[in-house]
Amino acid sequence: MTEKSILHIGFDDTDSRKGMCTTFLAYKIVEYLKKEKARFLDYPYLIRFNPNVPWKTRGNGAVALKIETGKPQLIKKNILRFIKKYSAVKDGANPGLVFYEQKDIPEKFSKFGKMALYRLVSRNEAKKFIQDNQLETYHIGNGQGLIGAIGAIGYDFHDHTFELISYRDKVNLRKKREIFKDSVEKMQQLTFPRTFNSFDESKNRILIAPHGPDPVFFGVRGEDPDTVIKGASLVKSKEKFCGYMVFRSNQGTGDHLQNEIDIKNLKPFSSGYLVGKITEKPYTILGGHVFFSISRNGVAVKCAVYKPTKLTTIAEKLMVDDLVKIGGGIRKSSKKHKRVLNVEFLEVLGLERHVVMINPLCMKCEKRMKSKGKNQGYQCSKCGNTSLTKVKQEIPRQIEKQFYLPVASAHRHLTRPLQRIGKFNSKIEFNNSKKWFSKTN
User: Fold this and answer.
1) Within a 13 Å sphere around the CA of 108, how many CA atoms are in the beta-carbon half?
2) Contact of 97 with 153, CB cutoff 8 Å
3) Per-residue pLDDT tens for 206-227?
4) Is this model's pTM higher than 0.85 or not?
């Protein structure tokens, strides 16, 4: 009887802005592994890393698979062929492939993945990790894909969601995706809150389908495999997908914003959060974007809220000394601007009273008095009553102490939607009897 091995497989950076998709490569590899009778030990992982890295294609996603097999060497050799065949190297992809042939994954893998969530991890750091842990790897180009491949294998799910991704037939790849909008809207209504970010009602816009030439048809995100499978069955279109696969993912968890940013050492392209007080009155520039500054421990940082997020209507109502928590990514400095925190969420923790000085009220006539001139006090024009000073009046604030998010169409893959605030999934066990993989033709 052949001895079985547990094999962890991670890969990343196989796509480009012109096409392909790392999840589609995963779909093809899973199709092959099923033919080889490999036993799957978990759903495929789709891990989104730091969305602020400048060289990402779309969602900065890496994939990992965990299987049991009696022929690991053959499988490794054939997966390498898949990487070579499907990676968009000519269009700039730098694929990385990592194999780890052990039952348990050391904690150092998850620590590496956590780093890749909120900062730039260098290729040298990845190479050192590979050497220190004697990993079996392969890469084309500069090896950028090795970072995501390592991080995906050992990702530590404190919370997780699922996504069913369906794929297009070759003949449809360059054609417009014709998905019926009303079916997606209805699907969201029927599956909410177990699915998220499928349809933006404020913009009457479908959110499940990409717009580029990649092989993804659409993806349904939700809390469990049953829900995303049901959700996908409710989506209607002129085009039929050729197959789908369900991934366990960190999408919708906000994991990239759990790190507190060091305000004294703002590193470009890093992600996280800051708590501080507003030190500069918000102002709006041409284009509708709003800027303000927050300060902590005497250090200030400028924050940017962009118009498409629709958070600008909240940001412009902030006042100096309001206490806020801001989540987002650090934009690198330019000739015109210092480093800026691009806002992904805004939580108002404390509001200052908005007090203004106004002309006194005539108690007899119940009308505002008028100024008699500089330093001459105020007088009622109707009855002649006088007063020497203005009075304080508190104006109600038009914002609340609460958590604010952009509209759904401006969410990143990792953004935790409002319906998931405070919700954390304990790890849902893998059920291989569920139809988590389907090839329809």
Assistant:
1) 9
2) no
3) 999 988 788 999 999 999 999 9
4) yes
